[in-house]
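Morning run. Coffee first, then this:
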Amino acid sequence: MQGSPLPPPPQPLPDRLWGDRWRFATLPAAQLVTAFQDQPIPVLHLPEQLHPLTLGIASSAEVPGLVIDGGRRSLTLARWLQAARPVAATCIPGPPGGLVLATETGD
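And here it is:
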């Protein structure tokens, strides 16, 4: 019996995509869409059917996420994230530490 192939090991993000810093954060579900609509980089793709309120999540429920300050590379990073379609993030504590981002495309 053959099992599913193992996913490839994490690959380092190219230097051209490194942001200045990242952190975990939460937003109330009611603010999730409006918090990003007036940002200077207009890259936001959240289909209506995935809006928290459409999914029946209480407007006061805290939605966890990841905030990346891309600095001068913000637009490049935002476009890569939009194309890669992240589905999960895992924090690796301690040295060297970091963040492993799983994407739909496997990039």
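The longest helix spans residues 74-84. Good start to the day.
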